[in-house]
Amino acid sequence: xxxxxxxxxxxxxxxxxxxxxGAVSIFYIHQISDSxxxxxxxxxxxxxxxREMRTVLDExxxxxxxxxxxxxxxxLQLQEANITEVGEKEATEALEKDYDVLQSTTAAAAxxxxxxxxxxxxxxxxxxxxxxxxxxxxxxxxxxxxxATLFLGFVGSFTFxxxxxxxxxxPGFIANxxxxxxxxxxxxxxxxxxxxxNFNKNDEFAEVATAFNDMADRLNEWENTNLAKVMSxxxxxxxxxxxxxxxxxxxxxxxxxxxxxxxxENILNINEQKIVGQPAEKFTAxxxxxxxxxxxxxxxxxxxxxxxxxxxxxxLESREIVIPNLSPQTSDVLSVASRSAGKVxxxxxxxxxxxxxxxxxxxxxxxxxxxKTPISSIKMSLKLLSDERVGVSNPQQIELLEHIKDDSDRxxxxxxxxxxxxxxxxxxxxxxxxxxxPVEIVDYALNSVRFNAxxxxxxxxxxxxxxxxxxxxxxxxxxxxxxxxxxxxxxxxPEKSKVVIQVSEKNKQVIFSVKDFGKGxxxxxxxxxxxxxxxxxxxxxxxxxxxxxxxxxxxxxxxxQGKIWVESAIGEGSMFCFSLPAHKMDMGQKA
Length: 591
Description:
It is a multi-pass membrane protein. It comes from Mucilaginibacter jinjuensis. This protein is an alpha+beta fold. The protein has helices at 3-59, 66-80, 88-102, 109-169, 172-189, 204-243, 262-268, 281-284, 288-294, 351-386, 395-426, 438-456, 475-492, 523-526, 549-559, 587-590; strands at 247-251, 257-260, 299-307, 310-327, 335-349, 433-436, 459-464, 471-474, 498-506, 509-515, 563-569, 573-581. It is built from 16 helices and twelve strands. Helix 3 runs antiparallel to helix 4 (109-169) and helix 11 packs across helix 15 (549-559). The chain starts with a helix and ends with a helix. Mean pLDDT is 78; it is low at 328-336 and 587-591.
């Protein structure tokens, strides 16, 4: 039976019970009302008629007048039509005979007085009969009321029990299947796909149970199939990790080892049979390398490890594994939040690349060093050719000599930068730290570029704040950085413009800056300016350098615990800056 029909039958049953109780109540109420009406209609009227006739006899003397006779006769006729009790008829007939005597005009006075006396007796009899009837009918009415009260109480109690039982049991037809359905859904949410519902009724809940069981079977089938796929994929991934040449270590969110390949075991020198599932801290207590690896907070870090008596270089990369956290906390859609599932550490062997890089650096250093000798010879030859004592050159020859001189100067600068770069890459930067005055460093750099500035008509403006602290730095390399900044500023500044060199102090840092008013540098190139060999695209009017000057400048400044940066905007020029820590002087030095 459908749920809709069940509800109809249930509410129909309630309606029938209520109608039954109402009909029984109306029947008994109507019966009590009829009993009361009989008392008022019959007996009360007879008493009224008798009272009216006695009043006529009491208020009139014998013989009765015609009006009294007519009034008495009228009440007697009404009484004759209202005879309802036993004995009332005989008393009424005797009263009629007395009335005939009372209205006779020929009767003597004695018979009329006797008739009046007998009439009063008959009236009392009529009243007594009706009074007894009233008492009897009242008793019957009371009995009927008691009977009706008892029966209605029984019917009401029965109706209450029926309705109470219905209100308790009928909701179970709806609530019980829903409760079982909710319990089944909860079991499914806990991945108990063997949960089934069994409803033995032919209604919508049976259809829901069938659909639910079908869903559970499909989920169970999918779970089993998916588990097999997951296991297969897990085995495949483990095989791939094991065959990789890089050392790979995976930890879960509880810092337990999820996987580790043989390469990592060999590098870390871990010889235990069962490693997976063990807490990482079990090995970090006695393994400094493993501890250093796990201490990495992301990014890329380099290690130098001795393997088989040979130094090997490794690059560590650590990544946090973030997965979506599906949490059914909202009423519409599953809320998605990220949570950490652990970390993966990859230790790549870069020994071969390191060796190649060192070979490249050594090659550049060697070539640069070897090139400086012939370039110096070329410059010496150019100087001799320019001397008029050797011979006078024509204008064309002088122009060629100038071009050769510019190219040789540029070539010599490139070889010097390559030598400096090789020192930086090999970590052999030779810094001669001395306590220096920032203004002296600026003056040293200005002397190197003042001639070039005068040739382009560029004004070099120096702004030095008073009472500047001294710096503990390599004066030559710091000045070299300023010269590099100034050379670039002069190269990209229009003629008859100005270049501002400013020295200031802020937050215990001495800041050097060189600002030009050229075209400026596009923002997309600013982040790469300090990369090696990077060159900003030019319009062909300015000769481009080697792309090493700013990279070497960055290495020189950072080697002195300083910072370097650029500020530029198209059409507003560029400002290259670097800062060095202010030198702390003790009391003796200040004195």
